[in-house]
Design brief:
Elements lengths: L1 H9 L6 H9 L3 H16 L2 E5 L1 E4 L28 H15 L4 E4 L9 H14 L4 E4 L2 H11 L3 H11 L3 E2 L9 H7 L6 H13 L3 E8 L5 H18 L2 E8 L14 H14 L5 E2 L3 H4 L1 H7 L6 E4 L6 H4 L10 H9 L4 E5 L5 E4 L1
Parallel strand pairs: 1-9, 1-10, 2-3, 3-4, 5-6, 6-7, 7-8
Antiparallel strand pairs: 10-11
The chain binds ligand V47.
The site of ligand V47 has 24 residues, from strand 6, strand 7 and helix 14.
Enzyme class: transferase
Cofactor: [4Fe-4S] cluster
Pathway: Quinol/quinone metabolism; menaquinone biosynthesis
């Protein structure tokens, strides 16, 4: 089947479900990487993107208990925290002072039992007022669903209010694996895969770009991964609203799903197959926080074209045993990219190039 897949990739034809599955089951990692790199170059030439950003997690207090999550806490539990808007602004000012400027803030939070929707709106509008040129990438589809249920608004009304308050785009978290049997095992209280897709579709229809993720390496099978990719490809055909796809490599510490870390081969394979299957999503992100810096660098030769960014302070993956640093400097990201022979492209939230290094 490899010969036929190679022909299809050369001629820009779409891979089938069976072909995607065949690639996941293949051990021919070099050929897989070579094909994925060819596709990556078609989309992005020899560029690899990164952004100067800061991740902020306003609270870890969450009403859900996802079994893979080591970040969430109950109210009053040891380690539970809540950031005020002033504290968030102070963190952004510190980052700006340290680096000189910031291009984006990435905000993902727990589902707090008491915070009102207005708090999130004020958070966004205050950030926009203080930092008018920073892109705000905030709130997963899971949080949007929660805001809508708490406020009694429709998803559309919720998103419109967030957009008016300063939301520029949305991160891709909460997708996990769409299959309902897998979800029942790993995140029984979380919204369904269908609901995730429906909320993202609404966002796209309102002109809000989003990312998409897939959490892999826990209890799912290759079939589940392929189905997940197919659903994203289908939605992207309809809306064109996805900017980047980010495979999230499972981190197995301090949580309830006890399996080994995904292997380096599995990480590279997942990046490469994603690049080959998602022929309509322009960017594949190698999230160095979960892959580790060195494997993330290698994955740039296996189909990935983006290294996320400086991040500064990552909490979700590090609660679960991520072995990477919590943040990185521009110089280090540039170094990692240059050593692959590709060109470091510093970008804004929408992949416009700010500077080629
Ligand atoms: O939704 C939680 C995942 C996500 C673990 O869109 C875990 O640019 C691995 O979505 N092991 C949040 N993953 C992070 C996220 C993200 C990160 C970077 C960039 C973007 C983007 C989005 O983290 C959650 C969940 O799927 N997660 N626990 C864990 N133990």
């Amino acid at each position: 089947m490899f010969g036929e897949i190679r022909r299809k990739i050369k001629e820009g034809e779409r891979l089938s479900r069976e072909e995607a599955l065949f690639l996941f089951n293949s051990d021919n990692i070099y050929e897989l990487g070579e094909m994925a790199d060819e596709v990556s170059r078609k989309f992005n030439s020899n560029r690899v993107y990164f952004i100067v950003n800061r991740h902020i997690n306003p609270t870890n207090i969450c009403v859900n208990r996802c079994r893979f999550c080591a970040f969430s806490r109950s109210k009053g539990q040891e380690g539970a925290y809540e950031l005020s808007i002033d504290e968030i602004i102070a963190q952004l000012k510190d980052a700006e002072r340290e680096i000189g400027y910031l291009s984006e803030v990435h905000i993902v939070s727990g589902l707090h039992p008491d915070w009102q929707f207005e708090y999130y709106l004020e958070m966004l509008s205050t950030i926009k007022k203080e930092f008018p040129s920073i892109g705000i990438k905030a709130f997963t589809a899971v949080e949007i669903d929660y805001f809508a249920r708490k406020s009694g608004l429709t998803v559309e009304q919720t998103l419109i209010k967030l957009k008016e308050a300063g939301l520029d785009l949305m991160p891709g978290g909460g997708a996990e694996i769409f299959n309902s049997h897998v979800r029942a095992k790993i995140c029984p209280e979380k919204i369904s895969g269908e609901r995730w897709l429906e909320i993202i579709k609404t966002a796209h229809e309102l002109g809000i770009k989003t990312n998409a993720t897939m959490l892999y390496g826990h209890v799912e099978s290759y079939e589940h991964r392929v189905d997940h990719l197919m659903k994203l490809r289908e939605l992207q055909d309809q809306t064109g609203g996805f900017l980047a796809f980010i495979p999230l490599s499972y981190q197995p510490e301090n949580n309830e799903i006890k399996v080994p870390y995904p292997s380096g081969i599995d990480d590279l394979k997942t990046i490469a197959v994603s690049r080959l299957v998602l022929d309509n999503i322009p960017h594949i992100k190698a999230y160095w926080i979960m892959l580790g810096e060195k494997l993330a660098q290698l994955s740039l030769l296996f189909g990935a074209d983006c290294l996320e960014g400086t991040v500064i302070e990552e909490r979700i993956a590090h609660s679960a045993g991520a072995r990477s640093k919590k943040g990185n400097t521009i110089e280090e990201l540039v170094h990692l990219i240059r050593e692959t022979g590709k060109v470091p492209a510093q970008r804004d939230s929408f992949y416009n190039v700010i500077k080629l290094w």
